[in-house]
Each structure stands twice: as structure tokens, then as C-alpha cells.
Design brief:
77% of the residues lie in helices and 0% in strands. By secondary structure, it is an all-alpha fold. It has a domain of 72 residues. The longest helix has 29 residues. The chain is globular, with a radius of gyration of 19 Å. It starts with a helix and ends in an 8-residue tail after the last helix.
């Protein structure tokens, strides 16, 4: 059993890092307008406040899980649903960020690609999928501790 002051310090540390990290991320995403753009593209603008709250709570929860080794029993189906949801969110966030920063038009002008831009985006997404599957199905990275 850990000493009470240690647990209290860890709780304060976890909540503090969660609040600071989520505040910084929300400020960054809000300044460049990613969440409103995501809400506009998905035609869910009336829920844009919930997007920000969900991101902030996710970062806070992630910070708590980083500080404490909490075991959450989840079935393989639950892990699959969580992973798919996380992947969809990260993919949408990355595409929205790229769109806000005008990555595609700038790349198009510099590389002078006339055809196949959708194939390039698909190849990038497929590469991300294959890399993620390799990371999770072959636990080489988790054994390096």
C-alpha cells in the first residue's frame, strides 16, 4: 500500500497535467478552427461544443491512466470498437488539420500532380492502417520495456 501523501501528489499531478494538456490542445485546435471544420464537414455543427469537451475529457482521462496503472477489463470486441473509433477520430482530425493548413493545395502546386491525388491520400491512409496493425499485432514495441 502506498503512502497517502504519494497518492495525493499523484492525483494532483495527474489532474494538473490533464488540465494543462487539454487546455493547450483545445486552444491549438480552436485557434486553427479544426473542430468547427470537422463539425461543418460532418453536418453536426450543433454538437461542436461537445467535440471540444470530448477531446478535453479524453486527454484528462489519458493523463490519469498515465499516472496510475488502472486495469480496465474490456473484451476483444470492445478493444476493436475503441480502436476503430480512435482511428476514425484521429484520421478525421488529421484531414481537417491538413485542410485548414491548406496542405493539399500547396502540395498540388509544388508537386504539380494533376491526377491521382485521391489515390495518394488513400495510400497514406492505407499505410497508416498497415503500420497501426503491425504495431498492435506484433508486440515487438511493447516488449522493449
Amino acid at each position: 500500500m502506498e503512502a497517502v501523501p504519494s497518492v495525493i501528489l499523484r492525483a494532483i499531478w495527474g489532474l494538473g497535467t490533464g488540465i494543462i494538456t487539454s487546455g493547450g490542445l483545445i486552444a491549438f485546435i480552436t485557434i486553427i478552427g479544426v473542430i468547427p471544420l470537422m463539425a461543418h464537414r460532418t453536418q453536426t455543427s450543433k454538437y461542436s461544443i461537445l467535440y471540444g469537451s470530448a477531446v478535453m475529457l479524453g486527454i484528462l482521462f489519458g493523463s490519469i491512466l498515465t499516472v496510475w496503472d488502472i486495469y480496465i477489463p474490456v473484451s476483444n470486441m470492445g478493444i476493436a470498437v475503441f480502436s476503430l473509433s480512435f482511428g476514425i477520430f484521429v484520421g478525421v482530425l488529421i484531414i481537417a488539420l491538413a485542410e485548414v493548413l491548406d496542405v493539399f493545395p500547396i502540395t498540388d502546386r509544388r508537386v504539380k500532380i494533376k491526377k491521382g491525388v485521391s489515390l495518394i491520400v488513400f495510400a497514406l491512409a492505407l499505410g497508416k492502417l498497415v503500420g497501426s496493425l503491425y504495431y498492435w499485432l506484433y508486440p515487438v514495441f511493447t516488449e522493449l520495456k
